[in-house]
Structures are given as C-alpha cells and as structure tokens.
Amino acid sequence: MRAADGPVVLAACGVSKRFGALVANEAVDFDVRAGEVHALIGENGAGKSTLMSLLYGLMHPDSGTIAVDGRAVRFSSCVDAMKAGIGMVFQHFLLVERFSVAQNVMLGREPGRRGMLDRRSSEKEVARLATGYGFALNPATPVEDLGVGARQQVELLKVLERNARVLILDEPTAALSPQEASALFDIVHRLRSEGRAVILIAHKLKEVLSVADRITVLRRGKVVGSVEPEQADEAQLGLMMVGRSIDLDKRVPRIGAPADVALRITSLDVPASSGAGLHGFSLQARAGEIVGIAGVEGNGQIELAEALYGLREPTAGAIALEGRDITSMSCANRRRLGVRYVPPDRQREGLVLDFSTEENALLGDQRRLRRGSVIPAKTMRRRADAIAREYALAGYSPSVKARDYSGGNQQRLIVGRELSEGAALLLVCAPTRGLDVGAAAVIRERLRAARDAGACILLVSYDLDELRALADRIIVLCGGVATGELTPENADDATLGMLMGGIAA
Ligand SMILES: Nc1ncnc2c1ncn2[C@@H]1O[C@H](COP(=O)(O)OP(=O)(O)O)[C@@H](O)[C@H]1O
Ligand SMILES: [Mg+2]
Predict the structure, then answer these.
(1) What percent of the chain has pLDDT over 90?
(2) Would you state the pLDDT for residue 4?
(3) Closest residue to atom 16 of ligand 1, CA basis
(4) Same domain (yes/no): 344, 429
(5) Least confident span in 37-41, 171-175, 429-433
(6) Is residue 465 a part of any domain in this protein?
(7) Is residue 54 within 6 Å of ligand 1 at its C-beta?
(8) Which residues form the domain of 485?
C-alpha cells in the first residue's frame, strides 16, 4: 500500500515568510504523515528550503503556525525541533572534517565523559547503527576521507541516532551518483516502513515519482498543488513547477554533420586522483559533436577531463587539438587555444565563492585580458552583464558574490563564462547535477548551441537520461578503460549498465 494514512505528525498551516520585499513563502499549507514520504519540488528559489527552516525551527513564520501532532508549537531553535523528534539533513553537509564518523554522529551528545572508553563506546554505538542501515562506514574514519555518499550517510546517522520521527532531507540526491541515490531511496523506504515521516526535496522528477507517496509543488513561494505519483507524470510535474512545459530529456539532433577531427587522444595513461585513473585511452572527436562519457563515478572520467584541461599530467600517450600536440601544455595556453572546462564541483573548482560575479566571470582569463597590470573595468562589466542577460541570471548584479546565488545560477555563471568566447574543446562534468528543470534546460540548450556552433564537447555525466538527451555518441568507461561505444538510440539502461560494470555488451 502506498498512500499513507498514519496521523499527521508535522504541519505548516498557512505559513508566510518574507525577506524584505521578497515573499519566500506565502500562505503555505504542508504536512507529513507517519509512514509517508512527502516530496516537495520546485525550481531553485521557489521557497523549499525556507519552508523547511520554518518546520525545523531555524526561523519563525511571519504568519501562520507550525504544528506537531496537531498541536501548535513555537520552536525557539532547532534544538526544540530535535526534541520534538524532527531531524534535518541539509543541502550542504555540516560535518567536522577532521573528526571521525563517530565523533560527528555523537557531536554534542557523547555518552559519559572524555577518554578512551567513551570513544570506544560511541564508536560501537555508531557501528551498530550504521550496520543496521547497511552503511559500510568505519566509525573511526575521519570525515575528510569520505566521499559525498558516505558523508550523507553520516548526516543521516546523526539524525537517526536521535531517533527522529520526522526526517527532512533537503536535496539529498543533488550530489550523489545514480547508484548512491538509489541506495539512499532504499533507506528512505526503510525509514517509511519504520513508521517515520520523511520530507524529501529533490529535483529529478523520475526519482520523485518513484519514491514519494505524495508530491507537493511550490512555485514562487506558493503551493501550486499536491498529487499522488500514480496520478502524475514528469511532464505534468514540470509544468506545475515552471508554469510552462519543458521536455528536459528530449533528444535534439545536431544541426549539420560534424566536421573534422578536433581532438585526438592516443593511448593515454593518467594516474588516479579520486578515481581509477586512465589506462591506454584513445578517442577521436570531431568539431560539432558531443561525445558523452558514461560510467559509474570514479572510473577515470575526472582524470580524463583533468588531463585534457592540463590539470593532471599523463604518464603516457598524447593529446592533440586541431593537429597540435597539447599533451604537456599549460592550462593557460590551452585556454588560449579555446579549451574550456566546466568542473564537477562548481563551488570548489568552478567559482571563487567570495569573489563578485564580475570577478568570477573572468576567472581563468585574467592574464589574457589584462591591459598593463589591470583588467579594464568595462571589460569586466561587459562580460558579466552579457552572461547575466543570456543565461537569465536571477538576482544578478556585478558585485553580488558567487556564494549568494543558488546552485542553478552558479552553474549558469560558470557555463556562461566558459562559453563566452566560444570554445574549440569544451570539457563538461555533470553540468546539471542537482539543478532544477529550468536551469538544467538552459544549460543543455547552451551546450547544444555550442556544439552546433562547432565546438567539440566532451560530456562527463552520471545521469543516463542526460547522456542520451545530449550526446551524439556515448563512450563507457570502467576502471579507466573504455568498455564500449553506443549511439544514444542503443544506449538503454541495461546495455549501459553492463558496460559500466565492465561486462561487454
Ligand atoms: N536568509 C535569507 N535572506 C534573504 N533571502 C533569502 C534567505 N533565504 C532565502 N532567501 C530567498 O528566498 C527565496 C527562496 O529561497 P529558498 O527557500 O532557498 O528556495 P529553494 O530552496 O526552493 O531553492 C529565494 O529568492 C532566496 O534568495
Ligand atoms: Mg533549497
């Protein structure tokens, strides 16, 4: 049975919240029942996180009430919310890097006093909890050594250790690989079957439809409607979210035939960074085509992109761009030849969060654009203005810090910058991961336009729908080796899955 008929445990009743002139939530009704997964969806900036902050006691509504078990409450902080059995996993993890898994989980509630014994007993307790949920976590590992998926499990353990009845998951899948996301959904189902209430904010409509019992759509601070997944489909939800219809995963064939070979990679070996490294990889790609690189995260994709951009030195093999050997060329010189990069981690590699929009719009090209020792103010302003206009950057002003944009707008800024002068070779990693459909549609449309304008694009993506929608052909990597090549038409999940697992299709 899907539809939950447990009692409503947490509710927002007619809540409104303003930030100055901006109405982030307007008369919102939202509740969640015991044993239910209630998904909340909406574009970036729709007010989802604001609503969660109200439910979790981080902010007070300007009007309306929050109720727990049918009784109005007024949380003075999230400590009160936690006491009421509400736990939240945030969009950006709040873990202490140098602390171990166990220390993070037990933070603020170590059993007993300090010392060896306490460490041992808290590690034992955390190990018990982790094993119960099937998490392969060693309680003694420092969090800084963990990947995103594991970090999220630590965040979940923090909440579960307090035995929360209501779990709020704010975009938990944004940074996860499809495999990690599906593992998370298994956990979500498990939590539901334990009778807990789960509020899930997510962007991928397919995921939402498969995991939720009820889906509520927020647009510009207001509830557009609630549906049950059996009565809804992706197209309808997309329409509710943005107010117009978007078919994100529709294939748009390229205009014209691809031209000459632009990129020639020959027997490339690249040492491993976070992944498997690259072993004897060869590829020829043409101007005017998008070559998709599929694979489970960590199978050499990032090493490939970094070697092509000049961030990681190959130990063997050669890279030629338009007939020119660039194997050991510096990044700056590659940029001069039109090599551009959209890195997988927008916040850490793509932007300097504390720099202004103008400054970020120039990153990577500072030296080249300098006249004397400074970059002319007009050059800076012009570039930022153009990106803002073309990519509909919400909340734009030249001086706004990159940190203050939503994820979707940060990515618009990066892609806008990388494409602002055209590109000969564009390396793109997970370009729409975690973005709402509106932002994802803009990014995809721009990538296609760049291809049609003659760029050679290498698209590393963990989203199979995205690969099929964008790529003209798809190469699969497993263990740093190409295990196959498919056309988007032949790239069904089963075939891709086999190649991704290293089994010849
Ligand atoms: N603390 C804040 N101060 C000012 N504006 C905010 C604050 N938090 C959110 N906003 C604004 O409120 C709107 C809704 O934001 P948010 O709830 O984070 O949306 P979502 O989570 O759906 O992306 C956005 O326009 C955002 O810029
Ligand atoms: Mg949010």
Answers:
(1) 64
(2) 63
(3) 47
(4) yes
(5) 171-175
(6) yes
(7) no
(8) 270-500
Of 402, 397, 333, the C-alpha closest to 365 is: 333
**Cβ of 46 below 6 Å from ligand 1:** yes
Atom 2 of ligand 1: nearest residue by CA position: 19
- CATH number where 229 lies: 3.40.50.300
Verify that 293 and 425 share a domain, yes or no.
yes
**If phi over 0 gives left and psi between -120 and 50 gives alpha, with beta otherwise, what is residue 482?**
beta
Q: Does ligand 1 have an atom closer than 6 angstroms to the CB of 25? A: no
- DSSP-derived secondary structure letter, 273: S
In a shared domain, residues 240 and 279: no
Which residue has the CA at smallest separation from atom 12 of ligand 1? 24
Q: What is the pLDDT of residue 384?
A: 94
Using the atom order of ligand 1, give the atom closest to the CA of residue 50. 17
Inside any domain, residue 235: yes
48 lines ligand 1 (CB under 6 A): yes
Atom 17 of ligand 1, nearest CA residue: 47
Residue 65 tokens, joined: 């009430």
Instruction: Tell whether ligand 1 has an atom less than 6 A from the beta carbon of residue 42.
Output: yes
DSSP state of 494: H
Q: Is the CB of 50 under 6 A from ligand 1?
A: yes
Same domain, 341 and 227: no
Contacts of 131 (CB under 8 A, 6+ apart): none
Q: What is the mean pLDDT of residues 297-318?
A: 95
Which residue, among 161, 97, 154, has the nearest Cα to 129 in the 3D structure?
A: 161
Per-residue pLDDT band for 181 (boundaries 50, 70, 90) equals: confident
Tokens coding 261: 């070979």
> In the structure, what pLDDT confidence band is assigned to residue 1 with cuts at 50, 70 and 90?
very low
pLDDT, tens only, 16-38: 999 988 899 999 999 999 999 99
94 domain-assigned: no
Question: Taking 80 as the threshold, does the pLDDT of residue 9 lie above it?
Answer: yes
Is residue 380 a contact partner of residue 19, using CB atoms and an 8 Å limit?
A: no
User: Which atom, in ligand 1's list, is nearest to the CA of 201?
Assistant: 21
What's the rounded mean pLDDT across residues 43-66? Answer: 94
**Looking at the domain assignment, is residue 405 inside a domain?**
yes
